[in-house]
Design brief:
- Chain B: InterPro entries: UreD.
- Chain B: This is Urease accessory protein UreD.
- Chain B: It holds the Pfam family UreD.
- The complex is a heterodimer of chains A (219) and B (250).
- Chain A has 219 residues and is mainly alpha-helical.
- Chain A has one domain (4-12, 23-207): Urease accessory protein UreF.
- Helices cover 65% and strands 0% of the residues of chain A.
- Chain A has helices at residues 4-12, 27-31, 40-49, 51-67, 73-81, 86-106, 108-111, 122-133, 137-159, 164-185, 200-210.
- Chain A is globular and about 45 Å long.
- Chain A starts with a helix and ends in a 9-residue tail after the last helix.
- By secondary structure, chain B is mainly beta.
- Chain B has one domain (61-244).
- In chain B, 6% of the residues lie in helices and 51% in strands.
- Chain B has 2 helices and 17 strands.
- Classes of the chains: A mainly alpha (219), B mainly beta (250).
Amino acid sequence: MTDPELILLLLADARLPVGGHTQSATLEGALGRGLGAADVPGYLRTRLLSSTRVEAGTAVVARATVERRGPLDPVERAWAARTVSPALRDASRVQARALLRFVRRTWPDVARPLDDLARPSRATVLGAVAAGLGLGAGSLARLVAYDDVQTVCAAALKLLPLDPVTVAGWVVEALPGVAEVERAVSWAELPSDIPACSAPQIEAWAQDHAATTRRLFRA
Amino acid sequence: MLTSTERTARTRVRVSPADTGRCRVRTTVTLSDPTASSLRPVLVHHDATSARVSLVPEGALLLAGDRVEVDLAVDAGLRLDLVEPGGTVAFDMRGGRAIWDVRITLGRGAVLTWAGEPFVVAAGAAVTRSTRIRLRDGAVLALRESLVLGRHGEEPGRVHQSTEIVTGAGPVLVEDLTFDALTAPALLGGHRVMTSVLLVGAPAPAGAEADRYDLEAGGTLWRRLGVQAHEADLTGAWGAVRSGVGPGEG
């Protein structure tokens, strides 16, 4: 088996053709509603305290579920009940489709536990992939949280006139928050363990953004 | 955890069938000590299949050490409409805290509408609010809530609000929100009022598209954030939802 650390690098790499460039983690919607460049670091912190924990927790529980050969449907339902915004659920599933295409072609066996789900969320797919490729719960939680930070920051560079070095500094400042997400969710095993700490404002922005036609990012 | 100064007031309402021409509405209030403030259920109206109850606060609510429990059950095919005469203020608890616990069971085809009034979490308050609702097949829930963080011109108090709505098919809505002076501005984008209308078990009424979140497992949430109460107003959605589930009585 490939060293899980290399798998982690692969999955965290934005050059993987899984549609990461179509996502702003709702930053575009937030900027359209009055958030400014100076607010981006705070936006990162808010996400790491709220919606990202739901995503990371779901991935960790999906991983544990596949490891004990349980059904993923209850995990997916638990995620959906914690994600009230249809726009966010849809964005997650569109990304999941791209990821699943890559996984099915590359590691068909790894994708098999997902066969019963019509439209799995990205978190569920990542969890199943982590289980199949030997990635631990802590690494998986870190991956989800780190990816969220990089998604916001990469989008910020397209949406705002910022110095890339400044933005990379924001990523570094957010890393302790990434580690906190790991601590908060990596113990989770059952669907009921998934955090339900959403951010109502982010959900509202995501809904508004999905209804606009002029946008750079899908979500 | 609360200390031994905790005062518990448990309010129970159960609507069940009877062959007397009117459904039976049993209400009890249990106090852990005579000084506990409570919500007194006042039966406003009842007929063969439905009842209307007003939850009237007795004593000063909500103070440090208060534990308010509301336990509601509506049996199959019956209906309960709940109203409140006014909002609730959770006052400065000076290091103490309070608990507000709601548990609801709706039988097959039962209907509950609850027109909640604003719940204000004043600066210094620390409240744990939990709402657990179980719906059997065909049951309908229409719930209005408004959370206000801080009275006019003051910082938010701390509130941990957990909600779990479950049907036979699984969870419909699970939320665990913690707001305080530090997190509220970010989680609510600078707003301090969050109003919501939740409808489960019935299709969303036409014409209430704004602020609407279609939940995955069926059910619809309308949610609106505002700096002032009127900006978070969902009167239109609530009206449409109420008409959709029938007018009720009274």
